[in-house]
Amino acid sequence: MNAPEKLDESAVNRQKADLGGENIRKSNFSAPSRVLIVFLVWTFGIDLMLSLLLPNPQILSWPFAFLHVAILMIALAPVYYLSLYLPLRYYVRTSRHATQTLQETLDKVQKIVDSAFDGIIVINEQGHIEAFNAAAEKIFGQPAAAVLGKNISTLMPEPYRSQHDAFLARYASTGKTKIIGEGRELKALRNGTEVFPIELHVTETDTQSGRRFVGTIRDISRRKRDEAELKLANEKLEERVASRTAELEQVNAALNKEIAERKRIEARLHEFATTDALTGALNRREFDRLLINEYEKLKRHGTPLSIILFDVDRFKQVNDRYGHLVGDKVLVELAQLLKTTLRRSDIFARWGGEEFVILAHGNAQQIYCLAEKIRTLIAAHVFPEVGYLTCSFGVAEFSDKAAMMNTIGTADKLLYAAKANGRNRTEVESDESCLLAS
Ligand SMILES: Nc1nc2c(ncn2[C@@H]2O[C@H](COP(=O)(O)OP(=O)(O)OP(=O)(O)O)[C@@H](O)[C@H]2O)c(=O)[nH]1
Fold first, then answer.
1. How far is the CA of 354 from the centre of ligand 1 (A)?
2. N or C: which end of the chain has fewer CB within 10 A?
3. Is there an atom of ligand 1 within 6 Å of 331 CB?
4. Does the pLDDT at position 139 exceed 70?
């Protein structure tokens, strides 16, 4: 298709007229009419001069008339040349040049418009298509010749088609529109059948022959397809992530359960390894380990540390009278009583049989007081199965100079001394007294 043909003819003519007029106005000879006026003035001027110079009767004779015309033509020849031929030749050349310039400009504009990536469609106020560039031909699958002059709504599917004329009329009457100057996504019609998505930007411009709307159209089918594919891929990915997350959460929950179970087993194992199975008090091995730690601290920092060894009085009788199981229950209850009484920093363990040990921070006097407090507490406690019971206590203070085992031995001796001295009493190395003692 010849490019300039695609532009609306009236618009071309208007532009031609504008461009031509502009060039002529710029020249010294603005119009043929002005040349004609100059020619007439010269003709009548010379004719008048000849009439005045020559006697009147001779004017009527044919030879004279011939001479008159000949003189007139000879006299006016330079005037013809200067005032008629040259201006006309200049006018024609200028007009031809202006037309050529206009044509070149139009060719250039058309090429630019046709080379645009986006489709460009110009419509008038009635919605009739006045320009349709090459990209628009490609996008809509129709040659410009097939759509020029037709209503733009022929390129739209329903419901846009039915709404478009009303939209234009409303805009003409109210001046209100949402689309001018804004970009929006719409549906268009390719080859009159295929509905496809477009992105449309509309601008408007006022021309001598009325308002024009310029639509810039981009086929976004591919983008939409890509977006849809991307959305689908995203959805699938999200689904996979969700199911994988669920799987991981399950695995995680199972792992957490396993870890919790392991921790529970470890704690249980630790408990088995460190506590006495019957009473729940620390066992002898754990006590020995903690004693070594505390003894090291004592040696480093000099903080006073003492030991209480105590033993249930006449426990054999309990076993003999109530049975071994009741004896066990009594030991469990006794340990429970001690646990609720002692501080967390005190280390309480079963030493063996019905004998218990307490490692406590404090000097002999302070821990003697503690032993007495425990003694009176036990003595006042009613054991459901057996009633009242008493215990005997031996208290000794560790020193950084004495060997650790010696102090334990001392506490043991003092415990036996308490037994020997009548039971239900506390013996300590030095002559200690305690306000708590009863
Ligand atoms: N039920 C029970 N009895 C125990 C346990 N360990 C030791 N005994 C008993 O505790 C009793 C300790 O008796 P003895 O050493 O004669 O001392 P006792 O009868 O308490 O008399 P004194 O200590 O001199 O007051 C024994 O009969 C042991 O069998 C135990 O774990 N459970």
1. 6
2. C
3. yes
4. yes
Of 6, 291, 334, 337, whose CA–CA distance to 146 is shortest? Answer: 6
Q: Name the CATH superfamily housing domain 284-428.
A: Reverse transcriptase/Diguanylate cyclase domain (3.30.70.270)
The structural domains of the chain, with segments of one domain joined by +, span: 9-115, 119-219, 231-271, 284-428
Question: Is residue 276 in contact with ligand 1, taking CB distance under 6 Å?
Answer: no
Ligand 1 atom closest to residue 325's alpha carbon, by position in its atom list: 1
Work out the average pLDDT over 5-12.
Answer: 45
Nearest CA to ligand 1 atom 26: 316
The atom number, within ligand 1, closest to the CA of 326 reads 1
- Contact predicate 313/389, CB 8 Å: yes
Topology at the third CATH level for domain 119-219: Beta-Lactamase (3.30.450)
Task: Tell me the pTM.
Answer: 0.54
User: Helices (DSSP H) in 134-220: which residue ranges?
Assistant: 134-140, 144-147, 160-174
d(CA 343, CA 361): 10
What does the pLDDT look like over 83-121, one tens digit per residue?
778 878 888 899 899 999 999 988 888 888 888 889 999
ipTM score over 0.90, yes or no: yes
